C-alpha cells in the first residue's frame, strides 16, 4: 500500500488493537508466578569469593564420557543455558548422559575491583578444573566456553593444555576486528581504564544499555510487538518473562578484568595479532592442540560468524571443526532447536573423541 492509499481510520484501528493486545499481555504477565534462574536440579560443589561451581544432577543413564565443564561469559548470567525445560542446552546434555558442571562467576564485591583476567583464568577457572577432575578421578575435562567464556577457555587451554581433553567453543569471538563487529566499533574509543578508576566495578546496567543500543528497534519496540502477538499464550508469556529477567539482570564487572578485556581483545586484538600474556606467560592459539568443536550462529549480531570462524587454521589442533547453526546469538540456546540440535551435536562430537 502506498502512503497516499493509507486509510487513517484503518491505521488508527490497527494501532489501538495493538495497544490493547499489549496491555492485555502485560496484565497477564503480572498474574504469572515468579520465575527462577534455571530449571535443572544442581548442587553447589565449590565456592570462592562469590564464584560458585555447580554440578547438575543426572537425567539419563551415564554416557561414560569425561565431564563437561561450562565456562560462561563474565558479562551475563548463565541462566540462558537452562531457561526452561523445553529450551535448555544443559537439560539436553544431561538427557544424553553427559555429566555437566557450570561456573557461575557471581557478583564482584567492591573490593574485587582489582580482580584481573589472570585471577579468572589461572585462578578460579583452574581451581574449578581441579575440583571437577578430583571428583571424577580424571586428568582432564571437556571444557565448553560460551561467548566471552569461550575466549577465556581458549586462553586457559593454551596455558593448561594437559587439563583439557576436548574444547568446545560456542559463539566465541576470536578475531575482534572483523568489519561487521558492532561491539568493537562501540569499544574502539572506550577508555575502559578510566571507567574502572571512576566506577571501580563496571555497573551491569551500564553495559546492558550499551548492548541494547546496538539494535534498538529489534531489542526494544520489536520485542513488545512480539509480546502483544503472544496474546494470552501462558507459555509464551512465561518465556518472555524469563528472557526479560535474564536480559536485565547483568552482573557488575570487576574493573581491572573489564579494562584488560576491552584493551587486549577489542582494541588490540591480541588473540590474533599476538602479544597476549598472563602471569608473564605468552598466550598463543598455536598452543591449543586438543580437539576443538567451534559452534557459531549464522545470524549473530554480537559475535559475527567471521569473528568465530577466524579460529580455523590458527590453532595447533589437528582436529578442529566449525559448525554453523541458523540462529542468533541467543536463539542458538533458546530457539526451537535448543533441546535437540545443539545438545545432540555436542554429545555426538564428544562421544567420537
What keywords describe this structure?
two-stranded antiparallel sheet; 353 residues; 16% strand; eight-stranded mixed β-sheet; 14 helices; 44% helix
Q: Walk across the major sheet and give the strand order.
A: 1-2-6-3-7-8-11-12
CATH first level: Alpha Beta
| Integer count of domains | 1
Estimate the mean pLDDT confidence.
88
Looking at CATH, which topology would you report? Answer: Rossmann fold
Q: Note the gap between the termini.
A: 57 Å
Under the CATH scheme, the architecture is 3-Layer(aba) Sandwich
Low-confidence stretches: none
Percent of residues in beta strands: 15-25%
Q: Residue share in helices?
A: 40-55%
For the largest beta-sheet, the strand count, sense and barrel status come to: 8 strands, mixed
Radius of gyration: 21 Å
Helix and strand run: HEEEEEHEHEHEHHHHHHHEEEHEHH
Quantity of strands, as a count: 12
Could you state the CATH homologous superfamily?
Answer: Alpha/Beta hydrolase fold, catalytic domain
Helix segment count? 14
Task: Describe the protein's architecture and organization.
The mean pLDDT is 88. The protein has one domain: Alpha/Beta hydrolase fold, catalytic domain (Rossmann fold). It is α/β, with parallel strands linked by helices and 353 residues long. An eight-stranded mixed beta sheet has the order 1-2-6-3-7-8-11-12, sandwiched between helices. Strands 4-5 form a two-stranded antiparallel sheet.
